[in-house]
Amino acid sequence: MKFFNYIEYLLKNILINFCLILISIFLIHFALGFNLVQNFRIQYSFEYIGKILIFNYGNVELNSQISVSAIFNPYFYTTFAILIIVLILSLVIGFAIAYNLAKSNNKVFKTLNAALTFLSAMPIFIIAPLLVIINKYLFLPSVYIDTFYGNLFNTILSLLTPILILCLLVLPLIISINYPIIYDIVKSEYYLWAKANGLSYKKIFWTILIRNWLSKFIEKIVLIYSYLLTLVLVIERFFYIPGQSFIFQYLKQEKYFNLLMYSILLNIVSIIMIKSASELAIFIFDINKKQRNIYLRRLKWIKNYSK
């Protein structure tokens, strides 16, 4: 029966988000079209919606017609790859710091958290040049090196500083989200009950801490992704990384209007897909129910709680 509930929820979610994407793209196309395209008509927006439904995203007129997806996708993949790497690193480090702060309030981690907060408060146009100067003393690349001009190792080296900056900037946000969640869990009755009954650290960590943390943290992932995306776009321009921001300088021209719309469409779809996945995960975790069944050492313990 639960399987059909998941399918029903998934289908409703897909339908709602599909309509949301179409409405958003129509309104954005209409608003931007009046500002960027001469003699623009509202029917062009309806025609554009019809085209994207058959996966026709338009072309760009250069020396010849080139599909906007062929132009934009490589830049999108670069941005997305950097974003995912930073997100994973930041989640692991941020969780570790928040966990130690919540569990023992260790002075070392308190100092580290304060230092990260201080660094993240600095404007990005100050912290980035400082790290570039440090790079020069360490003989590290100060701008992105494409594999076309060097080997893969040099390309990876040139990405270390941008990734480090992004981690420093997003870590305080992740820690601030994680800390109250983890603190509530480690101070909860069911967590203390598990420790009092002699459960292993590994079982408590994965069965109680991680499961309950995921059910509450996952709803924040869209916020973190959106915030990190804006930071990545800024850092890309600073270090000349060929990501999405690299082509934004051309998008005010009328002949690149289809490219602009495709970039907006791709980012909206990616954000809504992440949002949908997180909502589905929350639904599966079923964190809003009034009773939670926890099986520990083959013993069923029911903990009633209010939302």
From TrEMBL:
<comment type="similarity">
    <text>Belongs to the binding-protein-dependent transport system permease family.</text>
</comment>
<keyword id="KW-1003">Cell membrane</keyword>
<feature type="transmembrane region" description="Helical">
    <location>
        <begin position="260"/>
        <end position="285"/>
    </location>
</feature>
<dbReference type="GO" id="GO:0005886">
    <property type="term" value="C:plasma membrane"/>
</dbReference>
<feature type="transmembrane region" description="Helical">
    <location>
        <begin position="221"/>
        <end position="240"/>
    </location>
</feature>
<keyword id="KW-0812">Transmembrane</keyword>
<feature type="transmembrane region" description="Helical">
    <location>
        <begin position="14"/>
        <end position="37"/>
    </location>
</feature>
<dbReference type="GO" id="GO:0055085">
    <property type="term" value="P:transmembrane transport"/>
</dbReference>
<feature type="transmembrane region" description="Helical">
    <location>
        <begin position="159"/>
        <end position="182"/>
    </location>
</feature>
<feature type="transmembrane region" description="Helical">
    <location>
        <begin position="114"/>
        <end position="139"/>
    </location>
</feature>
<dbReference type="InterPro" id="IPR035906">
    <property type="entry name" value="MetI-like_sf"/>
</dbReference>
<dbReference type="InterPro" id="IPR000515">
    <property type="entry name" value="MetI-like"/>
</dbReference>
<feature type="domain" description="ABC transmembrane type-1">
    <location>
        <begin position="76"/>
        <end position="277"/>
    </location>
</feature>
<protein>
    <submittedName>
        <fullName>Oligopeptide ABC transporter permease</fullName>
    </submittedName>
</protein>
<keyword id="KW-0813">Transport</keyword>
<feature type="transmembrane region" description="Helical">
    <location>
        <begin position="75"/>
        <end position="102"/>
    </location>
</feature>
<keyword id="KW-0472">Membrane</keyword>
<keyword id="KW-1133">Transmembrane helix</keyword>
<dbReference type="Pfam" id="PF00528">
    <property type="entry name" value="BPD_transp_1"/>
</dbReference>
